[in-house]
Amino acid sequence: MGGAVPLRARLTAIFGALVLAPDTMLLRLSAFESSSEWLGSWGIVFYRAWGRLVFIPLMYVLANGGRSAAYLDAVRALGAKRLWRGAALYMVQNVAFIVAANMTYIASVLSIVATGPLCSALFSRLLLEEKVPTHTWLASLACVGWVLLIFADALESGGETRHVVGTSVALLVPVGTGAYWTFCKANPDADMVPALSTSGLLGQTLALAVVFTADARSGDGGGYGRVAPLVPVTDDGGVAVTALVCQCVLVAAAFMFLTIGAKDVPSAEVSLYLLMELPIATLLVWWATGETPPWQVFVGAAGLLCTMGVESWIGITESRRESAAEMEVAEVEAA
After folding, report:
1. What are the DSSP calls for 90-129, one per residue?
2. Higher pLDDT pick, 215 / 25
3. Confidence of residue 47 (pLDDT cuts 50, 70, 90)
4. Which of 9, 141, 149, 306 falls 20 to 30 Å from 253 in CA-CA distance?
């Protein structure tokens, strides 16, 4: 990307990252009639999928001056194959994130999610044959070590299977994110916003399939039977319902702003903005629920945060240097 990055684009991407920060706190406050953490995760998947399906097209229309045909035009321009492939890739990372965050420490999940740009670089190397800088390979090796430290905590957490499962599922998030962004990069002319919305249709279908094929006894929903994982609790003063509604709106808005900003802001810089979620979200979850991860998670999170921060900053510096060189060449040719 040559030329200066518009300030408006940067502010839009930063705002999207900040809007996303309370997401995991709201996820923690969402409770269902089912006592199963596994099935409760799919209840959240179901409602957030509805949020993408409903709110993203609405926001897209508003962002295009209220023109109702704007979204349908974007769908037609994207085409059926790219629409469904993009939706499926986004759904994988979205579902994995929700399930993982519901079963283990938020700090563990967000730390692993922060390695998404490295997976994007690796997929770009394998599928698009793009050159991966040496500093990215070094950052990848360092991140493997920090993730192993977080995994060590999961294996030592009093034999709790949920932490092992949650941390394992979290590994799918950066992989799915990397695959999704590589797909977007392979189709630079495509507006992928309709794919984000369509992923909601896939997500809710998968959630219903899991809930209704699960053992009804595992729901333990006090008479609600199989639908217990889809029924928010009502004896908490409306906290669960409010958290669900806020999730649907905020996440849809956040990814709309990030998608718009990412059109003009280098991917390394967007990744740097997203790192803000790790400390902010961890503090919000601690404030709202008192969740305090073990020291291994804190050390691993700090290591990943520093590693990805340095990696993103180097990427930004190189991008600016390349842009400056391209401008100099253009000026010489024009002289």
Report:
1. HHHHHHHHHHHHHHS-HHHHHHHHTTHHHHHHHHHHHHS-
2. 25
3. very high
4. 306
